[in-house]
Each structure stands twice: as structure tokens, then as C-alpha cells.
Design brief:
heterodimer, A: 114 residues, mainly beta, four-stranded antiparallel sheet, globular, B: 111 residues, six-stranded mixed sheet, three-stranded antiparallel sheet, 43% strand
Chain lengths: 114, 111
């Protein structure tokens, strides 16, 4: 079974803090994604990566950055957390082989910014 | 740009009743469409994809290119079908498997 692990289930941070959300997958997938999930808005793509050190902006990249130094790990960084970044964050991975690609999701990190 | 619309935020039915979750898309190319489901306290997971033309847990979905729809249907809903359902579209090509999701529909099946 594909395993996508997000390091924290719940996080509480203060406005202005730098926040790191970590995601690790164990299936040697090339593609990794970060979404935020908000009621009524669905899942919105923040950033994705299709290879080590490669990244592309999604639909809502403002206020976020990412890092992919190793194939299995994809980090989401909030440089200076703000209250409007309070949300559920989901990480996903998929293989470049096989079409159409299926995304496998982590359990999510619920971030509260106070 | 592609877009996925799920017009119903909430859908309630009684056990044994038919259920249809609507999904409409806009995309100029040939789309690949999916339904993902998130049960309570579980992670988001794939339910079915149009290319497989399969029935999963009694659910089916047919791609209607004329109406640009991919509605999810089940003839007899069960209480365990209560969940959040997302329709998603993959644009194919060099999109690296990037998905565009709809807003989601919360399905509640009452006993």
C-alpha cells in the first residue's frame, strides 16, 4: 500500500511564525502536491513538484514556498504565518507511470494560526 | 483553464433511495475525470475514474462529453456512503497528474 505521511496531525502557531509542514511518501513517486482544504472551496492546489528540486506554482501559491531536496520528501513552508492560512493542509503523491495518474493522500495537517 | 463545478454542497437522502452527485466540468481538451471520497476520520481516497468504467461500492459515473458532466450515481444508498465527495479533472499532457477539484459535496444518508 502507498503510504503518504504528514508529520503533524494538528499544529497551532502564532501570527508571523515560520511554519514547516512535512510530507513523506514511500512509493518512489515522482510527483508530489500540497493542497489546502476549506469548506465550500474544495481542494486548492498550492504547489506541486514533479522531480527533486523541481517545483511549480499551483492556484494559490501566495504566502507559501516549498522544498523538495529528496524524492520522498516534500515540505510546505509558510514564511510568516497569517490567520487566513488557518486550514487543513493535504499532501499527495502520484507516479508518472500509468495514465491516468492516481493521487494518494496523507491524513492531513490541521493548522491553526492565532 | 479547466474548471470543475459541484453545484450541491450538501445532499441528504434516506437509506435505500437513489443518489446522484452532480459534477460538471469545463475543459477544451479530452478530460480524465475522477471521483474521490473522504469518509469521516479517514484520508481522501480514489473512488473511481471514468477510464475504468467500473462500479465501486455500487457507484457508477458516466462521462457525458455533450453535457460536460460526470455525475456519480448509486441506485440504493447505504448509511456507510455518508462522506465528502470530490469530483476532479486531470488535463493530461504535461500536467504531471495535476488535478483540478470541485468544491465537494457532503452526502448524508439517513437511516
Amino acid at each position: 500500500d502507498v503510504k503518504v505521511t504528514q508529520s503533524s496531525r494538528y499544529l497551532v502557531k502564532r501570527t508571523g511564525e515560520k511554519v514547516f509542514l512535512e510530507c513523506v511518501q514511500d512509493m518512489d513517486h515522482e510527483n508530489m502536491f500540497w493542497y489546502r482544504q476549506d469548506p465550500g472551496l474544495g481542494l486548492r492546489l498550492i504547489y506541486f513538484s514533479y522531480d527533486v528540486k523541481m517545483k511549480e506554482k499551483g492556484d494559490i501559491p501566495e504566502g507559501y514556498s516549498v522544498s523538495r531536496e529528496k524524492k520522498e520528501r516534500f515540505s510546505l513552508i509558510l514564511e510568516s504565518a497569517s490567520t487566513n492560512q488557518t486550514s487543513m493542509y493535504l499532501c499527495a503523491s502520484s507516479s508518472s507511470l500509468g495514465q491516468p495518474p492516481i493521487q494518494y493522500f496523507g491524513a492531513g495537517t490541521r493548522l491553526s494560526v492565532l | 483553464a479547466q474548471r470543475v463545478t459541484q453545484p450541491e454542497k450538501l445532499l441528504s437522502v434516506f437509506k435505500g433511495a437513489p443518489v446522484e452527485l452532480k459534477c460538471n466540468y469545463s475543459y477544451s481538451g479530452s478530460p480524465e475525470l475522477f471521483w474521490y471520497v473522504q469518509y469521516s476520520r479517514q484520508r481522501l481516497q480514489l473512488l473511481l475514474r471514468h477510464i475504468s468504467r467500473e462500479s465501486i461500492k455500487g457507484f457508477t459515473a458516466d462521462l457525458n462529453k455533450g453535457e460536460t458532466s460526470f455525475h456519480l450515481k448509486k441506485p440504493f444508498a447505504q448509511e456507510e456512503d455518508s462522506a465528502m465527495y470530490y469530483c476532479a479533472l486531470n488535463a493530461g499532457g504535461t500536467s504531471y497528474g495535476k488535478l483540478t477539484f470541485g468544491q465537494g459535496t457532503i452526502l448524508t444518508v439517513h437511516p
